[in-house]
Each structure stands twice: as structure tokens, then as C-alpha cells.
Amino acid sequence: MLPKNTIYSTGLVLLTMARLAYAGDELSGLFTDAKLSGTLRAYQFTRAFENNATSDTHAFALGGKLKAETGDFHGFSAGLGYYFANDLNLSNHDDNNSHLTTILMGEGHTLSTVGEAYLQYKNDLLLLKAGRQTMDTPWINAGDATLIPNLYQGYTAAITPYEGLKIEADRILAFKHRTTSGFDRDTVLATPNSKPAVTEDTDGAIALGVSYKNASVSAKAWLYRFYDYANLGYLQAGYTFPALRSVQPFAEVQYMKETDSGAALAGAVDSQAYGAKIGLLLPDKLGSVFIAYNKVPHNNEAGVTNGNLVSPYTQGYVTDPLYTSGLNYGLVTARAAGEAWQLGMKLSLCNQKLDIIPAFTSFHTEPYAANIQTYLVDVAYHFSDKLNGLTLRNRLGVNHGNPQWGDYTIDNRVMVSYAF
């Protein structure tokens, strides 16, 4: 049986669509210009541990989304998105799921949800959106790297006074994890094995942001209130220099400050993080090479692991904006103060059809957590012509140095995706 908030949100959108259908020929564009889109994905996840005491885990699932959007009526429109996943009984649920990774769709065999159900008004200057939707901000985002993204119920308002400048405000009332079907008032910290683990409901979050980007300059500033967790301020800026022979140097910096808020459900928070990234843009749109650095200074008076960050909507998913965050590990995930270095490349070959991202990251977090080294190779091929929309992707990650998992762990994630 669908939860009540699912029925209400879906019913509101459907009722609005139905009423508009009877408003006459003037509204015919809502339906003649409507569009249906979607994504189908097949995903195979495996994780192997060098430590024989820890069971290797794996999972397979087929899923995606189907989305219907009305046409535009004087700026007004509506959308409805259905998300689903099914393991086709190919995942191993034996021994109380000890061989199953829950990253794809939890511990069940099927998962489905009405993940988007919204009304919006949009013109060249203004966007107003209410209902179930995706979010795309540095510390509150979709994290859409598996089958079903993180989704949010709330409101968005954004204005674009001129090209490149955007001012945005978001209010989150409820949250849907990647691996749950319902929208609840908890956060990622309610998921199993989360550290810290917090299952209490909260009033959600507020985010206010300003961003600007042109050919050479980028900048963003965000303020967040994670109710009963923390207040967070985030700054990021970058500059791309004029071409030096055939390459263009670039540099970026970032800074974050966080303090606890309200009931401080995760503990006392008094954290900072800063980082820098420098690199070269390669000629002919071939990609970039870069080196990145992040540091989270220790603070022994903070209740959250010696000054580490609290990120209620990205923690554990490693979808935070720190430059050195990787496939399955980062300073936020480490739950410890320290620093990290990353050396990487982002290559775009074969007329931008083939993406290759190799990266090496070294985390120095002792004595708060073990020092970890991670290796990543991310390869994706995007088809064109008659197979346009089809993508094959393989992400291989190796973590070295975690004593709880043995000398190393190996993650391999294979995804076949078709967008239409």
C-alpha cells in the first residue's frame, strides 16, 4: 500500500493535469507538447575483501525511471516520475543477506516509488517548483550513480538575473534514500552502519546559494541549515587562465565552516575544511590533468570525531563536493580529521564518446582513523547514431590500508544505461 504522502503528492499532480484538460483549446499545448522520457539501467556491483573474515558482497538489479512532463502554459507545467528496481532473483540473499550489498536497492527483491511529482512555474528569469523533485547543490544532491537517486520533497525558487548568475533557495521537508521507497523526515544518517547513526526525525533543511560562471571564472557560495544537526557555510571559486601554448592552466579553491544546530543530534560540531585544485585543460577538448588537496583540521573539543564534518544528505554516499572524495571513500566518509591528496585525469577521447578517469588518492587521518590509499579507474563509452542514449560504464576502485577489511578491498561496478 502506498504511503499517504505518496498518494497526496501524486493525486495533486494528476488532479491538476485533469482540471487543465478541461480548460479549453488554450491549454491544448500542455498535452500536445507533453513529453515522456526515461532511463533503463542494468547494474552489477561486487565488493571483495582481502580479509577472509569478511564476506564478499555483490548485487545485481535492473531498474530506472519513467517520467511524464506536461507542456508549458504561460510558464506553468507539471511532472511525474516513477522509479523502480528489481534484482530478478539474481542477488544472493542467503545467510541473512551476509553476501548482499545493500547499495543498489537495500535488502529487498523489488523497489519502486513515485519519486517526482511536482508543479512548477518557469520563465527566462524565475523558477518556482513545489513537490517531489531532484536537487542539485554541493551538499544536497541526487547522488545519481546507481539505480535510484536521492530524492526530495519540498520547494525550490531560483532566479537568473543574467547569463551565468543564479540565485537559489531550497526548502526540504522530506527525503527519500536511494534504497527506500518512501519519503521520510530522516537523513542518510539513518541508514544501517552509518557513523554517527541518527534515526530521529527532523524538520529537514534550508539551502541558500549564489553561483556565477563564465568562460574563465566560476564562484559559488552556499548556506545550509540542517535542522537539529548543523549550520554549514560553503565557498568555492575557480579561474581558468589564458592558453599557454596548447594547454590552459586552471586553479580552484574551496572552504567550508560548520557548527552544530538545535538538538545537535549527531553531537557537538565545530568543523572546517578547505582545499585546492590545480591542473591543465588539454587541447582539442581531450580533458584535463590535475592535483587536488583537502584538509579537515582536528578539533578535540568537537563531539563529532575530532572535528570531522556532518553531512546529513551525502555522508556514506561520498557525493560531497570535496575535491578528494572518490568512488567509495573520502574525508567525510572517514569520520576523522586529517588531509588527503589526489592525482587524477579526466580524458575525453573518440570525439567525446569515451571517458576515462584514473585517480590516486592518499588519505592521512591517523591517529583518528587508518591511513588509506585509493585507486580508481572509471571508464564510460557513449554510443551515438542509432544507439544514441546507450552508455556502458565500469568503475573499478581499490582501497588499501583499512585494517578492518584486510590489506585491501576491491569494488567493481558495471552499468549499462539507456536514456530516452
UniProtKB/TrEMBL annotation:
Signal peptide start-end: 1-23
Molecular function terms from GO: porin activity
Pfam families given in the database record: OprD (PF03573)
Gene3D superfamilies: Porin (2.40.160.10)
Keywords: Signal, Transport
Gene Ontology CC terms, in alphabetical order: membrane
Similarity section: Belongs to the outer membrane porin (Opr) (TC 1.B.25) family.
Protein name, as recorded: Outer membrane porin, OprD family
